[in-house]
Amino acid sequence: MNKKDIYEHLANIYLDNSGKKKKKRKTPFHYKRFYFFSISIIILFSVLMLFPFKKLNLTSQIALVIQPTAVKINFDFNSAKKEMYSFDLKELDLSKFDALNFSARKLNPLDIVHLRVELMNAFKEKSEVYVKDLKYQWQDYKINLSEFKNINDWTKISHLAFVVEEWNVKGERGIIYIDDVKIIKER
Protein backbone atom coordinates (compact mmCIF):
# COMPACT_ATOMS: atom_id res chain seq x y z
CA MET A 1 0.00 0.00 0.00
CA ASN A 2 1.22 3.34 -0.84
CA LYS A 3 0.57 6.66 0.79
CA LYS A 4 -2.26 7.50 -1.55
CA ASP A 5 -4.13 4.30 -0.70
CA ILE A 6 -3.65 4.92 3.00
CA TYR A 7 -5.00 8.46 2.73
CA GLU A 8 -8.02 7.27 0.74
CA HIS A 9 -8.67 4.53 3.23
CA LEU A 10 -8.47 7.01 6.15
CA ALA A 11 -10.69 9.52 4.29
CA ASN A 12 -13.32 6.81 3.68
CA ILE A 13 -13.28 5.85 7.32
CA TYR A 14 -13.52 9.48 8.43
CA LEU A 15 -16.25 10.41 5.93
CA ASP A 16 -18.27 7.29 6.66
CA ASN A 17 -18.14 7.90 10.39
CA SER A 18 -18.79 11.63 10.20
CA GLY A 19 -21.98 11.13 8.19
CA LYS A 20 -23.43 8.83 10.76
CA LYS A 21 -24.87 10.55 13.74
CA LYS A 22 -24.01 9.08 17.04
CA LYS A 23 -26.98 7.66 18.79
CA LYS A 24 -27.55 9.12 22.19
CA ARG A 25 -27.91 6.51 24.82
CA LYS A 26 -31.09 6.82 26.73
CA THR A 27 -30.70 6.60 30.40
CA PRO A 28 -32.91 3.78 31.56
CA PHE A 29 -35.92 4.71 33.67
CA HIS A 30 -35.48 3.18 37.06
CA TYR A 31 -38.90 1.84 37.91
CA LYS A 32 -37.75 0.30 41.15
CA ARG A 33 -36.49 3.64 42.46
CA PHE A 34 -39.65 5.42 41.34
CA TYR A 35 -41.95 2.88 43.04
CA PHE A 36 -39.86 2.89 46.21
CA PHE A 37 -39.94 6.72 46.36
CA SER A 38 -43.72 6.85 45.66
CA ILE A 39 -44.57 4.25 48.27
CA SER A 40 -42.33 6.00 50.82
CA ILE A 41 -44.16 9.32 50.26
CA ILE A 42 -47.57 7.65 50.58
CA ILE A 43 -46.59 5.92 53.82
CA LEU A 44 -45.13 9.14 55.24
CA PHE A 45 -48.33 11.13 54.55
CA SER A 46 -50.50 8.32 55.93
CA VAL A 47 -48.53 8.24 59.16
CA LEU A 48 -48.73 12.03 59.47
CA MET A 49 -52.50 11.98 58.98
CA LEU A 50 -52.94 9.28 61.63
CA PHE A 51 -50.67 11.02 64.13
CA PRO A 52 -52.74 12.73 66.84
CA PHE A 53 -52.27 16.47 66.45
CA LYS A 54 -53.19 17.27 70.05
CA LYS A 55 -49.83 15.95 71.14
CA LEU A 56 -48.23 18.65 69.00
CA ASN A 57 -50.15 21.34 70.93
CA LEU A 58 -51.97 22.43 67.81
CA THR A 59 -55.30 23.91 68.79
CA SER A 60 -58.19 24.61 66.54
CA GLN A 61 -61.48 26.27 67.19
CA ILE A 62 -64.85 26.52 65.65
CA ALA A 63 -66.34 29.94 66.23
CA LEU A 64 -69.87 31.23 65.95
CA VAL A 65 -69.41 34.96 65.43
CA ILE A 66 -72.15 36.92 67.16
CA GLN A 67 -70.90 40.47 66.49
CA PRO A 68 -67.79 41.08 64.33
CA THR A 69 -67.76 44.87 64.71
CA ALA A 70 -67.34 47.04 67.78
CA VAL A 71 -70.35 47.91 69.93
CA LYS A 72 -70.40 51.11 71.98
CA ILE A 73 -72.08 51.26 75.38
CA ASN A 74 -72.41 54.87 76.46
CA PHE A 75 -73.50 54.97 80.08
CA ASP A 76 -74.89 57.99 81.89
CA PHE A 77 -76.33 57.13 85.30
CA ASN A 78 -78.09 60.45 85.80
CA SER A 79 -81.09 59.06 83.96
CA ALA A 80 -80.87 55.29 84.45
CA LYS A 81 -79.34 52.80 86.88
CA LYS A 82 -77.91 50.51 84.19
CA GLU A 83 -77.02 50.47 80.51
CA MET A 84 -76.87 47.36 78.38
CA TYR A 85 -76.34 46.04 74.89
CA SER A 86 -78.23 42.85 74.09
CA PHE A 87 -78.00 40.33 71.26
CA ASP A 88 -81.04 38.32 70.19
CA LEU A 89 -79.58 34.86 69.59
CA LYS A 90 -82.86 33.45 68.24
CA GLU A 91 -82.71 30.30 70.39
CA LEU A 92 -79.28 29.10 69.29
CA ASP A 93 -78.15 25.64 70.31
CA LEU A 94 -74.94 26.23 72.25
CA SER A 95 -74.82 22.78 73.84
CA LYS A 96 -71.76 21.78 71.82
CA PHE A 97 -69.82 25.01 72.41
CA ASP A 98 -67.30 25.71 75.17
CA ALA A 99 -66.74 29.43 75.70
CA LEU A 100 -67.76 32.99 75.00
CA ASN A 101 -64.96 35.18 73.63
CA PHE A 102 -64.98 38.94 73.16
CA SER A 103 -62.69 41.95 73.24
CA ALA A 104 -63.45 44.99 75.38
CA ARG A 105 -61.96 48.29 76.51
CA LYS A 106 -62.97 51.43 78.38
CA LEU A 107 -62.48 54.87 76.90
CA ASN A 108 -61.29 56.69 80.03
CA PRO A 109 -58.21 55.12 81.70
CA LEU A 110 -59.25 56.55 85.09
CA ASP A 111 -62.66 54.82 85.10
CA ILE A 112 -63.19 51.62 87.04
CA VAL A 113 -65.76 49.54 85.17
CA HIS A 114 -67.00 46.04 85.94
CA LEU A 115 -69.03 44.45 83.16
CA ARG A 116 -71.84 41.96 83.68
CA VAL A 117 -72.18 39.35 80.92
CA GLU A 118 -75.57 37.71 80.91
CA LEU A 119 -77.04 34.72 79.05
CA MET A 120 -80.69 33.68 79.01
CA ASN A 121 -82.39 30.70 77.40
CA ALA A 122 -85.91 30.27 76.03
CA PHE A 123 -87.10 28.92 79.39
CA LYS A 124 -86.11 32.22 81.10
CA GLU A 125 -83.16 30.66 82.91
CA LYS A 126 -80.71 33.50 83.34
CA SER A 127 -77.12 33.49 84.51
CA GLU A 128 -74.42 36.14 84.67
CA VAL A 129 -70.66 36.38 85.00
CA TYR A 130 -68.81 39.57 85.96
CA VAL A 131 -65.70 40.77 84.19
CA LYS A 132 -63.77 42.82 86.71
CA ASP A 133 -62.02 46.09 85.90
CA LEU A 134 -62.00 46.51 82.13
CA LYS A 135 -58.67 47.70 80.74
CA TYR A 136 -57.95 50.90 78.83
CA GLN A 137 -56.44 49.00 75.88
CA TRP A 138 -58.25 46.28 73.98
CA GLN A 139 -58.15 43.02 75.86
CA ASP A 140 -59.51 39.62 74.91
CA TYR A 141 -61.78 37.89 77.42
CA LYS A 142 -62.79 34.26 77.51
CA ILE A 143 -65.64 33.04 79.70
CA ASN A 144 -66.26 29.30 79.79
CA LEU A 145 -69.94 28.54 79.35
CA SER A 146 -69.73 26.30 82.42
CA GLU A 147 -69.31 29.48 84.50
CA PHE A 148 -72.93 30.41 83.75
CA LYS A 149 -74.24 28.24 86.59
CA ASN A 150 -78.00 28.87 86.45
CA ILE A 151 -78.52 27.64 82.89
CA ASN A 152 -79.41 23.97 82.60
CA ASP A 153 -80.63 23.80 78.99
CA TRP A 154 -78.12 25.08 76.41
CA THR A 155 -80.15 24.02 73.37
CA LYS A 156 -82.19 27.25 73.10
CA ILE A 157 -80.17 30.28 74.19
CA SER A 158 -82.18 33.39 73.40
CA HIS A 159 -80.20 36.42 74.64
CA LEU A 160 -76.68 37.57 75.33
CA ALA A 161 -76.29 40.91 77.10
CA PHE A 162 -73.44 43.11 78.25
CA VAL A 163 -74.57 45.26 81.17
CA VAL A 164 -72.95 48.23 82.93
CA GLU A 165 -74.56 48.92 86.32
CA GLU A 166 -74.32 52.07 88.42
CA TRP A 167 -72.93 50.25 91.47
CA ASN A 168 -70.15 48.59 89.36
CA VAL A 169 -68.69 51.82 87.99
CA LYS A 170 -66.58 54.50 89.67
CA GLY A 171 -67.99 57.53 87.78
CA GLU A 172 -71.45 58.43 86.53
CA ARG A 173 -70.51 58.65 82.85
CA GLY A 174 -68.29 56.73 80.52
CA ILE A 175 -67.95 54.69 77.35
CA ILE A 176 -66.92 51.10 76.85
CA TYR A 177 -66.43 49.22 73.59
CA ILE A 178 -67.09 45.54 72.99
CA ASP A 179 -65.86 43.84 69.83
CA ASP A 180 -65.43 40.44 68.18
CA VAL A 181 -68.14 38.65 70.16
CA LYS A 182 -68.14 34.93 69.37
CA ILE A 183 -68.98 31.55 70.83
CA ILE A 184 -66.20 29.00 70.35
CA LYS A 185 -65.79 25.27 70.41
CA GLU A 186 -62.33 23.99 71.07
CA ARG A 187 -61.41 20.68 69.55
Primary descriptors:
single chain; 187 residues; alpha+beta; Jelly Rolls; 2 domains; 2 helices; 9 strands; elongated
Question: What do these coordinates show?
Answer:
With 187 residues, the protein is an alpha+beta fold. It has two helices and nine strands. The model has no long low-confidence stretch (mean pLDDT 81).
Largest sheet: 5 strands, antiparallel
Second rung of CATH, namely the architecture of the largest domain? Sandwich
Please state roughly what percent of the residues sit in beta strands, choosing from under 5%, 5-15%, 15-25%, 25-35%, 35-45% or over 45%: 35-45%
Number of helices: 2
Oligomer: single chain
Count of structural domains: 2
First-to-last CA distance: 95 Å
CATH structural class of the largest domain = Mainly Beta
Strand and helix map with partners:
Layout: H1 3-19, H2 31-50, E1 61-67, E2 71-76, E3 82-92, E4 99-106, E5 113-121, E6 126-131, E7 139-144, E8 157-169, E9 173-186
Antiparallel strand pairs: 1-9, 2-9, 3-8, 4-7, 4-9, 5-6, 5-8
